[in-house]
Specification:
The structure holds 2 protein chains of 2 kinds.
Chain A lengths: L3 H4 L19 E6 L33 H4 L4 E6 L2 H7 L17 H10 L3 E6 L2 E6 L7 E6 L1 E2 L2 E3 H14 L3 E4 L1 E2 L9 H11 L3 E5 L18 E6 L3 E2 L1 E6 L4 E5 L12 E5 L19 H4 L3 E5 L5 H10 L4 E5 L17 E4 L1 H13 L4 E6 L3 E2 L6 E2 L19 E4 L3 E4 L18 E4 L2 H18 L5 H10 L12 E2 L8 H4 L6 H4 L4 E2 L4 H10 L4 H8 L22 E5 L12 E12 L4 E8 L4 E6 L2 E4 L5 E11 L6 E9 L4 E10 L1
Parallel strand pairs in A: 1-5, 1-8, 2-5, 8-10, 10-11, 11-22, 15-16, 16-17, 17-18, 21-25, 27-34
Antiparallel strand pairs in A: 3-4, 6-7, 12-20, 13-14, 13-19, 15-19, 23-24, 26-28, 28-32, 29-31, 29-33, 30-32, 33-34
Helix pairs in contact in A: 4-10, 5-6
Chain B lengths: L5 E7 L11 H10 L7 E5 L5 E6 L1 H8 L4 E6 L2 E4 L1
Antiparallel strand pairs in B: 1-3, 1-4, 2-3
Chain lengths: 660, 82
């Protein structure tokens, strides 16, 4: 990707970050739509031999020759279609390759984001130009194609995870998700548990179902669940109306510009006979009404890029794509084929107001190229799925956020940048958005950490990423949520935004072992069979004499669910106290850490002891946090932060309180 | 009944394989065969799960749940890219 390495501080700290030889021993397995191996992001120049421990292969297909495709960067490529074909029938090879080849682009984008080699002069149609690189340029990539035109099937995903671990992947990256279900029914959760048990870090996307509450995917505590934020880069486009007013949107349009003199402007809802014509659905616009005009379409239902094709096919000269309340001010840039820009809800409403009041409305759109240094950034993307965790409310999710809006990375040669069949363009790179894009940032960073600290467990890697994440801007003020324009909460960003240079040296970590997670499953009252399904440990039974509690899981964040007093007026002043126990492991120099808490008005937080001294690396010290609160109306939420600091390191954990 | 068939993932307790079997795959096959003459294993899992996937009718899936060594029979889910 371009810009995100700088945004994450990977370039500034180049001299400070040790280039570890062991990083090149890490293989990031990416379960996705496959790979377009000819992209320069998979160039293996400068990489040593493939690690001797690697057992993966490059599977062949009609259009995928191992000798051409795999090398010392792309060390493995497999495809898993048996489950898909069992349900959907044989793959139509005129539409998609029965091989690891990526006909979609998504898998090429995610795998190059995680661990692509550096590619100078990368850009999409001139936008976002720079040197594109993965988060770990020295790690290797193995792709496991599990997603097809009809979706990604769990039998294939589980088979791919099975093989990826057998092959020797050290990190798995899954930018996909399903519905919310118990862990023993969720193949990704099961695969991730046993991958974790074998020392593999598993990073998954949180989902794009935001900004509604409890919309997360992949919430098992042994998974690193990644939400999406913006970076400090934008692609502005300017709408100039006939009345002289200007509105700023975003666009990746790169063709012939519109004339500087305004063109007639029409609302799609007034250029159709269909009730949903305002959405610019296929076949709904009347050519005689839109020909030669700029058409304002409302966002929603069909793909944003498809609306551009609908307007173009109806003879429109350009398009303004207006957000509605569902998307607010979130602007996602698209590489439309016709001059087009997306605008936020407020600008959309203002343009509509002009359009409906002026008897002869006109507009033009000018394109501003790439701007960097945009502030504030990051902000949490509106689409990023939000907590609370619907499966286990006592585990705070997402875990953290990373760049996931307007991300440039490598792309398939099968489709154009809009992904639409009607798009004849072919580009080396594309700019797209989603938690699919933020997840491989974290996967690549996990590989980076593994290289620097090969002895760290998956729990330690995750802890380092989380406890060093930042929740405030450097100048002060909490990271904003674009959905509300207000500061985001841990239900939006978890521990905060990833900060890789700090994650390299976290000072302390909350380590987690397989036994800790087995205790967690006991605390969920899972049956022996259910625990065995998740963990493959059919001889494990929970100890009837032991009091298991989810609050004892050594998680790097805290979610406390208080029960609301029952009955009308129900004794609302009764105070409830909940205790969580945690253990910190020193991964730095000897030192003394002191706890500080920023607690909300609604809760009292006490840490015991409030000071921990570590005499050696590897030493463990435990503490207890007591959370006390009076009853609040059901649905109340409040937030805080607990930090341990030795003056050099800050080991931070978000606190999330709910009353149900 | 064929039309109603869908893919299930069957989780097995590998340690409970009867001594008559030398290969887990054979045990999985025999377990599957005990509830369906026609069903075939799509995948056998061994590294991050123990078990297999197969196309089954709901009745066959329920019957399989009661076989020795079967931990759970879970319908396949479709996941989406994010």
């Amino acid at each position: 990707t371009t810009r995100t390495p700088e945004f994450l501080g990977l370039d500034r700290r180049e001299g400070l970050i040790p280039q570890s030889n062991t990083e090149s021993d890490v293989v990031v397995g990416v379960l996705d739509t496959g790979v377009w191996p000819e992209r320069k992001s998979y160039d293996d120049a400068g990489l040593g031999p493939v690690p001797a421990s690697w057992k993966g292969v490059c599977e062949e297909g009609k259009d995928f020759k191992a000798a051409d495709a795999c090398n010392r960067k792309l060390v493995g490529a497999r495809f898993f279609s048996k489950g898909y074909e069992a349900s959907m029938g044989p793959i139509d090879e005129t539409k998609e390759s029965r091989s690891p080849r990526d006909n979609d682009g998504h898998g090429t984008h995610t795998s190059s984001t995680a661990a692509g080699s550096a590619v100078p002069d990368a850009n999409l149609l001139g936008y976002a130009a720079g040197t594109a690189r993965g988060m770990s340029t020295r790690a290797r990539v193995a792709v496991y194609k599990v997603c097809w035109l009809g979706g990604c099937f769990s039998s294939d995903i589980l088979a791919a995870m099975d093989k990826a671990i057998e092959d020797g992947c050290g990190v798995l990256s899954l930018s996909l998700g399903g519905g919310m279900s118990d862990y023993y029914r969720d193949s990704v959760a099961i695969g991730a548990f046993n991958a974790m048990a074998k020392g593999v870090v598993v990073s998954c996307s949180a989902g794009n179902a935001g900004p509604g509450t409890s919309t997360l995917s992949n919430v098992a505590p042994w998974i690193t669940t990644v939400g999406a934020g913006t970076i400090d880069r934008d692609f502005p486009a300017y709408v100039v109306l006939g009345d002289g007013k200007n509105y700023t949107g975003v666009s990746l349009y790169s063709g012939k510009p519109l004339p500087s003199s305004p063109l007639p402007l029409i609302y799609a809802g007034n250029a159709t006979n269909a009730t949903n014509g305002n959405l610019c659905m296929v076949g709904t616009l009347l050519p005689d009404k839109v020909s030669g005009k700029i058409v304002l379409c409302d966002r929603g239902i069909n793909a944003r890029v498809q609306k551009g094709f609908v307007v173009r096919d109806a003879g429109g000269a350009g398009m303004i794509l207006a957000n509605t309340a569902a998307n607010g001010e979130e602007l996602v840039a698209d590489a439309h084929l016709l001059p087009a820009t997306a605008v936020g809800e407020k600008a959309g409403d203002a343009i509509k107001s002009y359009l409906f009041s002026d008897p002869n409305p006109k507009a033009t759109v000018a394109f501003g190229g790439t701007k960097v240094g945009v502030m504030p950034s990051p902000v949490v993307a509106a689409f990023s799925s939000r907590g609370p965790n619907a499966v286990t409310p006592d585990i705070l999710k997402p875990d953290l956020v990373a760049p996931g809006v307007n991300i440039l990375a490598a792309w398939s040669g099968s489709v154009g940048p809009t992904g639409q069949a009607a798009d004849p363009r072919r580009t080396e790179f594309n700019i797209i958005s989603g938690t699919s894009m933020s997840c491989p940032h974290v996967s690549g960073l996990a590989a980076f950490l593994r290289g620097a600290h090969p002895d760290w467990s998956p729990g330690a890697v995750k802890s380092a990423l989380m406890t060093t994440a930042y929740a405030d801007y450097p100048g002060g003020g909490g990271i904003l949520d674009v959905a509300t324009g207000r500061p985001a909460t841990p239900f939006d960003f978890g521990a905060g935004h990833v900060d890789p240079p700090k994650a390299l040296d976290p000072g302390l970590v909350y380590d987690l072992t397989v036994d800790d997670y087995l205790d967690f499953l006991c605390a969920l009252n899972y049956t022996t069979l259910q625990i065995a399904s998740v963990s493959r440990r059919s001889n494990f039974t929970c100890d009837n004499k032991k009091a298991y509690a989810v609050s004892d899981l050594n998680y790097p964040s805290f979610a406390v669910a208080f029960a609301t007093a029952s009955g009308a007026g129900g004794g609302g002043s009764a105070t409830t106290t909940v205790k969580h126990t945690r253990t910190l492991t020193n991964v730095g120099a000897p030192g003394t850490y002191k706890a500080t808490v920023s607690a909300p008005e609604e809760a009292k937080v006490t840490v015991d002891p409030s000071e921990l001294s570590f005499a050696a690396a590897g030493e463990k010290k435990s503490y207890t946090v007591a959370f006390s609160a009076a009853s609040q109306p059901s649905g109340t939420a409040a937030f805080g932060r607990l930090e341990w600091s030795d003056g050099k390191h800050v080991v931070a954990s978000p606190l999330a309180f709910t009353w149900t | 009944a064929v039309a109603k068939k869908r893919t299930y993932i069957v989780h097995m307790a590998k340690s409970q394989m009867p001594p008559a079997f030398t290969e887990h795959r054979h045990w999985y096959d025999a377990s599957l065969r005990s509830v369906s003459d026609a069903a075939e294993i799509i995948y056998a899992y061994d590294t991050v799960a123990h078990g297999f996937s197969a196309r089954l009718s709901p009745a066959e899936a329920r019957a399989l749940e009661h076989r020795p060594g079967v931990l759970g029979v879970v319908p396949e889910e479709r996941y989406e890219l994010h």
